[in-house]
Amino acid sequence: MRGSDVTRIQNSKDREMTQTTCIIFFEWTATADFTHHAHTASVSAVATSERYIATGSRDETIQIYDMKKRVEHGALLHHDGTISCLEFYGSSHLLSGGQDGLLCVWSTRNWECLKSIRAHKGQVTSLSVHPSGKLALTVGTDKTLRTWNLIDGRSAFIKNIKQNAVIVKWSPEGDKYVVVIGDKVDVYDLETATLTSTIINPKRISSIKFLTNSILAIAGDDETVRLCDINTQKVLCEFEAHETRVKSVDSFTVDDFCVLVTASNDGFIKMWKLNLESLEPPVLLGKVNTTARLTCLAVWKPTTLQEPPPEVKTEPTTSHDVKDVLELEKKRKKRVRISTVEVVQEEDASPKKKKDGGKKKLKT
Q1: In Å, how far are 111, 130, 169, 301 from 231, measured between CA atoms?
Q2: Where is this region: Disordered (predicted)?
Q3: Which strands sit side by side in the sheet containing 176-181, from one edge to the other?
């Protein structure tokens, strides 16, 4: 690969909404690495780790690709309904959320479903794992924001947000998190347990990306990408990225600058050179026309592809880091009812699926 960067693109056309394309960015030109019809319906979510790429679809499956061997690794079967969100924690775990309201935790060592949690009464629309790996946030169509203790698979806190949130995300340092509702971004500070600021976007927001712990890239139902400071609520930089609405944004770093990658309904993927110090308007490095209607995007950057670290313990623990974060969360509400949630067994959560341990390996 010689240090080249790979972006995972999910394509869905009006009639053929099953195509998955991997494109290599080499010397700021884009060529298709491989194209694979991985799903029988449109792709709805994508996530990358050091070694793997995961795609979720409306066909109720999660497809796994091994980027070290450049092969399709297999499929995970557990959810009933659309896979709405995916996120890797490091190289050891994958978390998935779906239309069935389940939050699932998978081990990347053997792709076993370690936990299956009935997270929301409606669809899980977004999830985010704390940098410590001990907590996760989810939002759903039941208009709640929930904090999960991933050690014992139980709900720590439930917050009614009175509206359907579409995105939730921890900051890189884990001291803040943001919740996207329509055209606004609510910023919460974990230490003070308060809503610290709200950023209003001119249009409905479809994608966000933390470039630093305070700079947030925001894209929505227009052609403009805005870089905002979540502390001051100021727009630091904005530029017209596409001719139609921007569907997804992601980023990676090269040397001393940031590369912002944008995908749009116009079928184009563009790479922008961004200086986070000066925050001048970015320079277009390259673009590619996929001739498809893009639904989501994620960047995979090759590394040494080392073996995953040992599994995180799944039994209850009294570690101080978990206690500290939970203690800070308690401040959000003086009186909070800690509810016990049902940890659903695999066959109970998905009675229509085959009893195969929650996964079906197509290839090894």
Answers
A1: 39, 20, 16, 29
A2: 342-364
A3: 167-170, 176-181, 184-189, 194-200
Comparing 306 with 110, the larger pLDDT belongs to 110
Residue 280 lies in a domain: no
Report the CATH number at residue 316: 2.130.10.10
**pLDDT tens, position by position, 310-344:** 444 433 333 344 455 556 555 544 433 323 233 33
Alpha helix stretches (DSSP H) within the chain: 320-330, 346-349
Structure tokens at 8: 């995972």
**Spatial contact of 84 and 78, defined as CB atoms under 8 Å apart:** no
Q: Quick one: DSSP state of residue 343?
A: B
| CA distances in angstroms from 133 to 25, 124, 184, 208, 332, listed in the order given | 30, 19, 27, 21, 21
Tell whether the torsion through CA atoms of 122, 124, 125 and 129 is positive or negative.
positive
Residue 16, pLDDT > 70, answer no
User: Residue 203 falls within a domain, yes or no?
Assistant: yes
Structure-block tokens of residue 68: 């070290």
What is the reported pLDDT for 321? Answer: 46
